[in-house]
Write a structure and sequence with these properties.
single chain, alpha+beta, 8 helices, 9 strands, about 30% helix
């Protein structure tokens, strides 16, 4: 049996594509055409009604605002809650950012992923566990992507944004994904400064969920780049207590989190999820925020993931 192997980030962060294997070694399916459907589920209408009821109750219990979107690629069924409302992207933007970098490397700048990037100590921002150790020698673009997605390195994301034209370049990339809503306006950490009614650096659960769907299971990326992108998500080390915690341990989850415990207590997670070998994946996007003074609560995100999976008939 081959096992999912996720190599720990070394000080040199070798730029290799992480191996993906499920259960007995098959690669995750990339869409409903190659998948087997899940067990019988409740009707779509009844499933979504129960999701709304359960999430309203969860909001009251945890004093949190929840935005959620999930789609089952085996059936095309989706469930949602406040899915059209805006939430701050926070660090979830680092996943589509690296997808944009992969696309540029594939379409207009060959060799970009192996390009060495250097910076100074003055460039290092908070929450930069990898780049703060490599001021003297720098890292390749591929290594910066790995750091940004797997450890949410903030400085890495700023350096990567420069490769695609800054925040405006990422907004433009969202538009190529047929996403008219998601937008980037500022760098890290300023983008985390969010209050209700703020549109800068925001998305909706439905918009980012559909983006993640086409990036992880569709044709938005070249097949080799899609595999590399999924591998980064699978190697993420920041989401153990979020979507992953609300699903069976036998399921394989690749995700990207976002957090801002100051101000309005934002906590996000977007994920592609394989419930088993030969079963088409689920894509989830969960965004939360709380009133000032209340920190991010991972339990609310985990419980939301459980409710969404149940609403899709997967649990």
């Amino acid at each position: 049996m081959r096992h999912l192997r996720i190599r720990r980030l070394a000080t040199t962060l070798p730029a290799t594509t992480l191996a993906i294997s499920l259960l007995s070694g098959g690669a995750p399916g990339v869409g409903p055409a190659s998948a087997t459907t899940a067990t019988a589920a409740p009707t779509a209408a009844s499933g979504e009604a129960q999701v709304r009821k359960d999430l309203r109750r969860l909001e009251v219990s945890f004093k949190v605002r929840i935005g959620a979107y999930a789609v089952d690629t085996a059936t095309g069924r989706s469930v949602r809650y406040r899915a059209g409302e805006r939430f701050p992207l926070l660090s979830t933007f680092k996943a589509p950012l690296c997808a944009a970098v992969l696309r540029k490397a594939r379409t207009s700048e060959p060799g970009l992923m192996n390009k060495l990037i250097t910076w100074t100590a003055a460039d290092v921002k908070p929450n930069s566990p990898v780049t703060e150790r490599h001021v003297e020698n720098g890292l390749t673009v591929a290594q910066l992507c790995e750091a940004a997605v797997t450890l949410s390195d903030g400085t890495a994301s700023n350096l990567l944004l420069k490769q695609i034209g800054g925040p405006a370049g990422l907004t433009e990339y969202f538009r190529t994904l047929k996403d008219p809503i998601s937008r980037m306006d500022r760098l890290h950490p300023e983008l985390n400064d969010w209050t209700p009614r703020e549109k800068r650096d925001t998305t909706t659960p439905a918009a980012i969920g559909r983006d993640l769907l086409v990036l992880t299971t569709g044709k938005a990326l070249h097949a080799e780049d899609r595999e590399r992108f999924n591998a980064w998500l699978l190697a993420s080390k920041t989401g153990a207590e979020r979507i992953r915690a609300g699903l069976p341990k036998t399921w394989t989850v690749g995700d990207k989190t976002g957090t801002n415990s100051d101000g309005f207590g934002g906590g996000n997670d977007i994920a592609v999820i394989w419930p088993g070998k030969g079963v088409a994946p689920i894509v989830m996007a969960i965004y939360t925020n709380r009133t000032p003074g209340l920190a991010t609560d991972n339990r609310a995100i985990a419980k939301t993931a459980t409710i969404l999976a149940r609403g899709l008939g997967r649990l």
